[in-house]
Amino acid sequence: MSAVQWRNAMNAGAGRAALGKGLPGRGPGVSSRAKGAGDEIVERQTPSMWAAVRARHVVVLAFLLAFPFFATPFLTYQIGAQSLALGLIALSLTFLGGYGGMISLAQMTVAGVAGYMLAIFGASGEATLSLGWSWWIAVPIAIAISMLAGTFVGWLSVRTEGIYTIMITLAVGVAFYYLCLQNYSVFNGFQGFQRVYAPTLLGVNFRNPVPFYFLALACALGGYLLIQYVLRAPFGVALQGIRDNPRRMNALGFHVTAHRIAAYALAAFLAAVGGILLVWYNGLITPNSVGTSWLINVLIIAVLGGMKHPIGAFVGAVIFVLLQTFAIDLIDRERFNLVVGGVFLAIVLFSPDGLLGLWARLRERISTTRPQAALHPRRSKP
Amino acid sequence: MKSSKRVFLRTLAGAAVFAAFSGAAFAQQTVKIGLLATLEGPFAAGGADGMRGAELAIKQRNGMAGGKKIVLVKASSDAKPDVAVNATRKLVEQDKVDIMVGPLSGGEGIAVKEYSKTQPNITFINGSSGAQATTLVNPSPNFFRFNTEGAQWMVGLGKAALDKGYKRVMLIAEDYAFPYSQVQGFMSEYCRLGGKVPVKAWVPLGGKDYASVIARIPKDVDALLVVLGGADAVNFLNQYEAAGGDKPIVGGSITVSQDILNYKGKRRDSLVGTIAGAPIADAYDHPDFKAFVSAYQKEYPVSSGAYPSPSLFALVYYINMKAALDGLDAVKGDLSGGQAKYRQALSKMTLKTPVGDVRLDANRQAIGTTFITEVVKDAQGNLFNRVLRKVDGIDQMLGMPKEQFKMGSRDEPSCP
User: Fold this and answer.
1) Which residues contact B71 (CB under 8 A, 6 or more apart)?
2) Co-location of B161 and B232 in the same domain
3) Do B270 and B375 belong to one domain?
4) Which residues of A touch B115 (CB under 8 A)?
């Protein structure tokens, strides 16, 4: 069966039903839709983008657009923009982990490759090492090299499963950290690169909080929509099929290894964009930016938010950044890491699916404790 | 049961958000000072001691300076530049501090200095970061450093080594900015006076295995210049001891600090006779320094987790915080006009510190004193640093003409 036939089967609903079986609630896009399976099939037959738009999407988007106009520059930049950049990197992990079943700890490394390449090809405080090319040359080069690196990580790790994937990607990440730390001719060692700034374009200085926030928002939104699209496209559906049963997908004629590597490449693109935003946000990149703690932090962000929906990465990033920033105000200054760790522990303990899981269970509870809600069925959820 | 837990969690989260957004406005009669040190990561112990030093400076004036009450807002980083900038940005933009004191380590200092340029109305005073580049390359008009840095701390040590008869030394140092500075401070003088450094071994920070380095030590060197800090120094000393090494050691500023002298390894006794350069000497007997030490000991007894004697970090944070407060006194708490008067006062003042007077140069970098110390054993068998020599008035050019001065790096200076 070719991929085209597979797609046709999917569109007819039969393939989808077969795929969704055994994994209630894990099928593509389930969490953003109403529960009825019948609705879903109907929706699939009219694949309009606007059909999926709900009131809450509009509210969230409006809030995000209005945010910098009522928040302080500090909140806009440090909380808003940083969360969006980190969220984009975590989104690449959510895509790989939640939909491809591959937990890669090297996503921060891939982002770091993009950041380093931007510093090396573009302008930085290290005039002797940086080539000083314009951002519009340096950024595509950085993204391309980073995608190559991400593809390489995928190629290395894709034949492994579970914990072995984690081990290999962690090893690659740590190796890259030490390379950056000890290489002086290219990566400038411990110092890294200082003064890597976002460009000024059409009179708008993207170093300023509000323009940078909107740049990050545009990238994050683009990444989010791209993933949402890919997950519904044959590529993404097949990826989820591979996650659930690689042997069966192989028997159906899919090249499982190539498919997974392609997923790594796509994830690398997201991570690269996130990495470039993060370097511009910090204005610098050092080996610590790709150190072990950051490799793990990306996983923490993804797990905090929940890996069953792309939005989880951003929710996790907001919580993570808020905690990192404000935990020190809550408790004795010397002990604030206790709060950070405690909240992480509580979320993972009470809701293994992260905050999104908590939200879903909360909704479920409300609808079951109020039977009248079931007696008067609403047509669609708000 | 479960739902009550959830309610509790949500309340907690709500409280968190509330606490985060409150606490902004304060009355006019206060001055907010932000204090940043590393309470996490490799320098957590040093960071905590730095905070003690800074708080001591405030406590000594009963929390007042220039007729205003000092409100201290603390933040922590983990010695990473991006974390330090995030923490600083929060203090400046969210907590609205007027004056910022910090950070602790070199890379952080450079990053915070770059950030300070975006906040021209706030005055930044260094914590204990000691990278040369902070004030030498692209200095920031509102970043002040009242402590001398890594290279300045080693001035005078080259001569002391030659006086001890060490004509050839091998260098073993960590591979990053601070040791580069330290090595430069030593070598520029040592090479000029005829000493030779045939082998340089740059080892990674946090390295565990020094066997390959020890194997490279040539037979014909007279001593080892060891610029390693904390656990690295202890690891190296142990392994060198185990390998049967017996060459005397010339130490960097944080190689033979009190915490290393307190360690209980076998090699301990062989440290006797080690010379080093540092901005602090435990046994310095000037009354001002003794008063500082006893104030520290009184305020922070060992039982509270403090050191028996203030560390380098405590002293340097104390000095920088004292500068911030003295400056406030000088302008009577007047921070108006984008703090222009305050900055003027800081640039001009001669700061009295426990280790002598400090002035600033045109880049707002301290010109101060360095101690050359030697490890000796007292009657009880404790090791401590005796002051061999005190060198005053060391500037950032290390006494060289500006044209000749080159910043320290792996290959600079060189005299094989």
Assistant:
1) B26, B30, B31, B32, B33
2) yes
3) yes
4) 283
B294 and B327 assigned to the same domain: yes
Mean pLDDT of chain B: 87
Amino acid letter, B339: Q
Distance, in angstroms, between A311 CA and closest chain B CA? 20
Please check whether residue A100 is in contact with residue A239, taking contact to mean a CB–CB distance below 8 angstroms.
yes
Domain span holding position B179: 152-285+370-404
Q: What's the pLDDT at B9? A: 53
Q: Which of residues 85-104 of B touch A (CB under 8 A)?
A: 85-86, 89-90, 93-94
On whether residue B101 sits in a domain, the answer given is yes
**Do B63 and B136 fall into the same domain?**
yes
ipTM score of complex: 0.78
Q: What is the CATH number of the domain that holds B231?
A: 3.40.50.2300
Residues B143 and B222 grouped into a single domain: no
pLDDT tens digits for range A290-336: 988 899 989 989 988 888 888 999 999 998 999 888 887 777 656 67
In three-state form (DSSP H/G/I as H, E/B as E, the rest C), the secondary structure along B139-191 is CCCCEEECCCCCCHHHCCHHHHHHHCCCCEEEEEEECCHHHHHHHHHHHHHHH
User: Residue B28: phi, psi to the nearest 5?
Assistant: -70, -25
Alpha-carbon span A246 to A41, nearest angstrom: 25
Q: Do B75 and A328 touch (CB under 8 A)?
A: yes
Confidence of residue B201 (pLDDT cuts 50, 70, 90): very high
**HEC sequence for A138-163:** HHHHHHHHHHHHHHHHHHHHCCCCHH
- Note whether A164 contacts B: Cβ–Cβ < 8 A: no
Q: Could you tell me if residue B363 is inside a domain?
A: yes
Q: Which helix (H) or strand (E) holds B355?
A: none
Residue of B nearest to A195 (CA): B114
Does this model's pTM top 0.80?
yes
E strand residue ranges, chain A: 200-201, 204-205
Backbone phi, then psi, for B333, in 5-degree steps? 75, 15
CATH number of A71-352: 1.10.3470
> What total number of domains does chain B contain?
2
Residue B20 belongs to some domain of the structure: no
Tell me: do B181 and B136 sit in the same domain.
Answer: no
Query: pLDDT tens-digit profile of B393-412?
Result: 999 988 888 888 888 888 88
Residue B204 in domain:
yes
Return averaged pLDDT per consecutive 10 residues of chain A, 382 residues in all: 50 43 41 42 52 82 90 90 95 92 92 95 86 90 96 90 90 93 85 86 86 94 94 94 92 92 95 95 90 90 87 91 84 71 84 81 78 46 42
pLDDT of amino acid B258: 67
Is it the case that residue B22 has pLDDT exceeding 90? no
Q: Which pLDDT score, from 0 to 100, does residue A30 have?
A: 41
Domain-by-domain residue ranges, chain A?
A: 3-46, 71-352
